[in-house]
Design goal:
Blueprint lengths: L3 E3 L5 E3 L5 E3 L8 H10 L3 E3 L3 E2 H6 L1 E5 L4 E5 L5 E5 L7 E6 L3 H11 L5 E6 L4 H5 L10 H14 L4 E6 L4 H13 L4 E5 L13 H10 L4 E4 L8 H11 L3 E4 L1 H5 L12 H14 L4 H11 L7 H8 L3 H7 L3 H17 L4 E2 L1
Parallel strand pairs: 3-4, 3-14, 4-9, 5-9, 9-10, 10-11, 11-12, 12-13, 13-14
Antiparallel strand pairs: 1-2, 6-7, 6-15, 7-8
The structure holds ligand FNR.
Length: about 350
């Protein structure tokens, strides 16, 4: 379905109504997981949170060998890797506490992504100390400054992801401020900064927010109940919205996005590893994500073996993908002979 439209004034829009969305997840939401979610039926995929100064300091590189655009630090850490396949569906999530820095960071990726999101929900100490994440929920002027700066200077849409405040009316006041900045949508994880996943999600807050603003509200926080599309639809209905953002259920079994029902976990793991190989992910990141997927199945022989794996090659052998791995590496070697240099854009 067509969801990405260029308007007459050069501004692009992204339709956030009736969408199934992969939530931002640090370490999990890198390119392989995003492409997998899209394959299984997600409409929009969010990147993991990326801190503004990291992307500002990164070099932009056209990686012809992989067919990607990479944003790489001087120590060769890949901060963000993306490709044409996701360009019109990927939302880049920024961690920021400063309007100017957020704009510099957003402008660096503006031509490669469909929208920019600002993380206003992260409760981790690192974020709070830096005035980022859920620290912003108590600073409406700062929220307004950051979002207004982004909305007025970018050609792509801006969204933000919040947690709720303890008081409903305070939360509604905050979302009114957010709406007034011109953002295209607002994602709501309906727990407070201090509540943990074991606390019930305040679905009724999402319902009230959706009644208060005129932009799409994306419901988040219901993963524990999600096994099939039916559960996801029930959550949306309970929240009174049409769009949903899914984190943990997708981390455990990304095929939760499939309309025809989820696939067996080992098949999902193999699909994931294939993308990790195709896009040359670091083996440690791949291993982490595979182990997250297996969290309830650690008595599986493959799970125990994955714990000890020290390379993508080994992970592929464990999961019966040795031929796939060899083919990809062979093709890549051939291709690299025809390439001369890595192009910095
Ligand atoms: C998260 N979450 C998160 N949120 C965010 O805005 N930026 C991020 O980078 C992350 N990172 C992250 C990593 C992991 C491993 C998890 C499990 C969660 C929070 C996430 O997007 C979501 O708001 C919550 O998990 C609640 O939604 P679910 O899990 O009930 O669908």
């Amino acid at each position: 379905s067509l969801i990405f439209i260029v308007m007459g004034d050069g501004k692009k829009t992204l339709d956030f109504k009736s969408k199934r969305i992969l939530a931002p997840m640090v370490r999990v939401g890198t390119l392989p997981m995003r492409l997998l979610a899209l394959d299984y039926g997600a409409d929009i995929v969010y990147t993991e949170e990326i801190i503004d100064f990291k992307i500002i300091n990164a070099k932009k590189i056209e990686n012809e060998l992989l067919g990607t655009v990479d944003f790489v630090l001087s120590d060769e850490t890949v901060v963000f890797r993306t490709c044409a396949k996701e360009k019109n569906k990927v939302v880049f999530q920024l961690g920021t506490a400063d309007a100017k820095r957020s704009l510099l960071a957003a402008q660096k990726v503006e031509n490669y992504v469909a929208a920019i999101d600002v993380n206003m929900g992260c409760p981790k100490e690192f974020s709070i100390k830096g005035g980022m994440g859920s620290a912003l929920l108590k600073k409406p002027e700062k929220v307004s400054e950051i979002l207004t700066t982004l909305v007025s200077n970018l050609s792509i849409p801006v969204t933000c992801k919040i947690r709720v405040l303890n008081d409903l009316q305070d939360t509604l006041n905050l979302v009114k401020v957010i709406e007034s900045t011109g953002v295209s949508a607002i994602a709501v994880h309906a727990r407070t900064q201090y509540e943990r996943p074991r606390h019930p999600n305040r679905n009724h807050f999402i319902r009230e927010i959706a009644n208060t603003v005129n932009i799409p509200v994306i419901a988040n926080g219901g993963s524990k109940e999600f096994h099939t599309m039916k559960d996801i639809d029930a959550f949306c209905q309970d929240c009174g919205v049409t769009s949903v953002m899914i984190a943990r259920a997708a981390q455990w079994n990304c095929s939760v996005f499939r309309k025809d029902g989820p696939l067996q976990l080992p098949d999902v793991v193999r699909d994931y590893i294939k993308y990790a190989v195709l896009y040359d992910s670091h083996y440690a990141n791949t291993k982490y994500c595979v182990l997250q997927m297996l969290h309830e199945d650690m008595d599986m022989k493959e799970g125990q073996e994955t714990l000890g794996a020290m390379s993508l090659d080994e992970i592929c052998n464990i999961w019966g993908l040795e031929v796939f791995y060899k083919d990809v590496i062979k093709t890549r070697r051939k291709k690299s002979h025809n390439l001369t240099t890595i192009k910095e854009i």
